[in-house]
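Quick note —
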Amino acid sequence: MSRLRAGCVGTGFIAGRHLDALATFPDVDVVAVADPVVERARDVASRNGATAYADGLALLETEQLDAVWLCVPPAAHGPLEDAALERGLPFFVEKPLAVDLPTAVRIAGAVRAKNLLTCVGYHWRSVSLVEQAKQLVADDPVHVMTGTWWDSTPRAPWWSRRDGSGGQLLEQTTHLFDLARVLVGEVASVQALETRTPRAEFPEADVPTASAVLLRFRSGAVGTMTSSCLLDRRHLVDLRLVLQGRTLDLRERALSDHELRTETAAGERSWRSTEDPVAREDRAFVDALLGQPARVPVSYDEALRTQALVCAADRSAREDGRVIDVDGELAGALGG
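Predicted structure written out below.
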C-alpha cells in the first residue's frame, strides 16, 4: 500500500484538526466523512473531495477504507469501533475511549484478538517537550505532582450532560491523567470529591463544575488534580512536578502551544513549542499503517490504563470520596 484511503466520523473541532493534517499528507486520500449535522458533513466533504454521510455506520458499511478516524462525542463510542473491528479496519479514536470502563475493556479485548493497529488521541504524547520532560525525570524521581484544568464550559450540547461526555474528568482532564502516568508512573489509588453549581445558561447541565482528586502513585509519590469549567475562558491547563531541589512545569496554552519550565536554586529555564501534536500523531499512525518504521504514540491497550484511572477517579467522586484501587477497578471491569 502506497496511498491510504481514509474516512472520518465526526466533523467537529478536533475532527477538523485531524482532517487538516491528513490533507497535507501526500500519501493519504480522505474519501468519506460523516456527521449527523448533514450540512456540516457536506461542507467538510466538499472541501476534501470526499463523500458525505449522515451516519458513521453507513460510512463504514459502504466505503472501502484502509483506516478510519473516529472523532465523536464520548457517548457515541462502541458501535463504531465494533463496526471497524468487524471489518478488520484499523482506527484512530479520540479520547476518552468511552463514557465508562466496561465498553473500553470490551473493545480492547477485541482489538487484541484481531491484532488490529489502533491509535488514541492523547496528543500530549506527541509533544516533543514531553519527551524532554521524560528525560529530565528519568533519573530524578518525582515526589509531588499537581495538575490543573481550569477552563470554560464547551457549548456542544452533549458536553454538559454526564451521559454525553462523562464529565470534565473524562472529557478534558483525562489528558493530564495520561501525562501524569507518563512522567510520574502508574497510580495505585485515587480519592476524589466533586461539586455542581447550577447555572442559568446551562439549564440541562448535570456535569460537576469542580472536582479535586488525590492520587497515590506506585512509586510513593503523591499528587492532586483539580478541574473546573466555571470560567469564561481557558485559564490554566498544566502539570507541575516537585523533584529533589527542582520543579518542572508543563503548560498547554493552546493545542499547538506548549511550554516546559524548570526551576532550581541556580535559576529558571524555559522552552516553548508551537508544533502541531495532532499532525504528529496522525503522521505516526499513517506511517505505521503504510508499513514504515514507526510506533504509534498511544495504542488502545495503553489508553485503557488511562481510562481505568480516570473512571476510578470519577467513581470515587460519585461515591463521595471513597478510596478506589485503580488496579482493582480495571480487574473488576475485566471480570477478574
